[in-house]
Predict the 3D structure of the following.
Amino acid sequence: MSLTVKQAAAHVCVSLSLIYGWCADGTLPHTRVGRKGKRGHIRIAIEDLDAVMAAFKVTGQTLQCIPLKHLKLD
């Protein structure tokens, strides 16, 4: 399934300009469809979009809960 830029941005909750930027710098694979010599419309495969988002995922260490001591203010 392919998405428009607007649909792709909504799918991953980012701005249109970020999607355009990722397409421009090659981060996000995309296809341009339309007449030869024209800019065309950008189409993005949902699998490619999900793969890019997965590559951006940051995994952190699990923090242990440390009980806090109550402080008395005089």
Notes: Helices lie at 5-12, 16-25, 46-56. The chain has a mean pLDDT of 87.
